[in-house]
Specification:
By secondary structure, this protein is α+β, with helices and mostly antiparallel strands. The chain has helices at residues 3-35, 196-205, 209-212, 215-229, 251-262; strands spanning 37-43, 46-52, 57-65, 72-85, 88-96, 107-115, 119-123, 129-134, 150-152, 156-159, 171-180, 237-248. Strands 1-2-3-4-5-6-7-8 form an 8-stranded antiparallel barrel.
């Protein structure tokens, strides 16, 4: 055998081994990739959420909607470890307070009937085939909890109402976010009604200085604003976060506030929820 033939044979052998081992492990790797994600199953008027992590852990919770299908309540949660073996998806339950679904310290074996990008069919040990649908990707908080959806609002500036005609003009300037209630799996965020901003302006401009002059009063008005805006958001608003607030006696400060919170990017090192105090008067608290 010549040196050229020897080198060529070694190269072919290496390429064969690469393709062979890649081909052998491709299906298993693909299945494990497909199973990772957020899955939901609708059973007995409740949603079962199952979050499968690539690290070999999982957590699950049960969510129940009210008659309007908008208010979500948690019924319980469970967590554990998982692995795949010979066409089966195996879950070990480490902790659970929903025993009717995930029994404490139990190991459940599910035969994989179908596994795709959006659908997973699992055959339970009693022969029942359950269908799981992969939900949209959401950010999660601790222990797999879905983080709240926050919708920024454009900054608002209104002329506060006056009890007497000779009272000094004061302008209330707010930069706020709407915090939504937890959505059901794959539920769409409702569009903000065009008249919602107008309703917020009418409400805020009806307030007098005494209504917003300190932290506690701003907090109270913020809760009232939730009730004002909810009809325009199909009842989805859970809370209003006030990031910045000032009360000014000059239009110059109002214009500065609007420009700062509309066009200027947040300065490096500036934390969330900071307050920009007006020289004349400001609640100086985060609501």
């Amino acid at each position: 055998m010549t040196r050229f033939q020897y080198v060529s044979t070694r190269i072919l052998l290496v390429l064969f081994m690469v393709f062979f081992f890649t081909g052998c492990g491709e299906k298993e790797k693909q299945d494990e990739d497909l199973v990772v994600g957020n899955w939901t199953q609708y059973r007995n008027r409740a949603y079962i959420l199952l979050v499968i992590s690539p690290k070999g852990t999982w957590n699950s919770s049960v969510r129940i909607a009210d008659a309007t299908s908008k208010i979500v309540k948690s019924k319980g949660a469970a967590k554990g470890s998982w692995h795949m073996e010979e066409g089966q998806l195996i879950f070990t339950v480490m902790a659970s307070d929903i025993q009717e679904i995930w029994e404490q310290n139990d190991t459940s074996f599910f035969e994989i009937v179908e596994l795709g990008e959006r659908i997973m069919l699992l055959k339970e040990e009693n022969g029942r085939v359950s269908e799981w649908k992969k939900s949209r990707v959401q950010k999660t908080g601790g222990a797999g909890e879905v983080a709240a959806v926050v919708i920024p609002m454009k900054p608002l500036a209104v002329n506060l109402n006056k009890n007497r005609s000779n009272t000094q003009d004061r302008y209330l300037c707010l930069n706020m976010n709407m915090v939504l209630k937890e959505l059901m799996p794959d539920q769409q965020i409702p569009a903000l009604h065009p008249k919602a901003r107008e309703a917020a302006v009418l409400f805020l401009s009806s307030l007098v200085y005494e209504d917003v002059k300190d932290f506690d009063r701003i907090k109270l008005q913020r809760l009232k604003l939730v009730d004002v805006l909810n009809p325009y958001m199909e009842g989805f608003i859970k809370d209003i976060e006030v990031e910045h607030v000032i009360i000014s006696t000059t239009m110059e400060k109002v214009e500065e506030f609007i420009i700062e919170h509309t066009m200027s990017p947040k300065k490096e090192g500036e934390g969330e929820g900071g307050e920009k105090k007006d020289e004349s008067t400001s609640p100086g608290e985060k609501a």
